[in-house]
Amino acid sequence: MTAQDDDDRSLYWSEFTVSAHLDAEGLLHVRERQGMVLDGAWNGCERRFQARAGQELDLQSIERIDPATGERTPLVEGDLDRVDEYAWQEGALRWRNRLESDPPFADDEIVYELTYTIAPVLLTTEEGGSRFAHDFAFADRDGVIERFQVDLTLDSAWTSTVGNHIREAM
Fold it and tell me: Fewer CB within 10 Å: N-end or C-end of the chain?
């Protein structure tokens, strides 16, 4: 692909919704639903994680969801030359959604759901408390998010100044 071809591509998220739960042991269970709108010759997508030293991420699943029918297609770990396969490369989770021989996307929305756990997500503060540290919208991304929502619940082992059920929408 040439640099000119890259200029003819665009990507944005029509929606990005997150449902997460911080369990008693400090393990964050996350489900992300990403409605990605692609235009141009994109061959795949990626999700970068801002992992800190000592953090462990366990990917349980990635599914492609047909926006019209709701049909789910599980992606499998494998070869990035095949559609609906994923791999970890250069610190990013990448997956293939189009073959180079397929026609380019034309403002097509593709919905993906990622399920994973990550820990630790609590940092100790100088005062001896804890601070939640996880970037749900991964700032290191191409494109904007039009509608973003997080629904986070905390196990009763944790307390927060805003309660144990936190909802944010932008």
Answer: C
Tokens of 95: 């997956």
Q: Output the pTM of the full model.
A: 0.89
The whole-angstrom separation of Cα 166 and Cα 78 is: 36
pLDDT digits (tens, 9 = 90+) for 25-71: 999 999 999 999 999 999 999 998 877 778 899 999 999 999 889 99
Rounded CA separation 119/133 (Å): 10
Peptide bond into 104 cis (omega under 30): no
Closest CA to 66 of 112, 103, 32, 114: 112
3-state secondary structure of 7: helix
Question: Cα separation of 5 and 1, whole Å?
Answer: 6
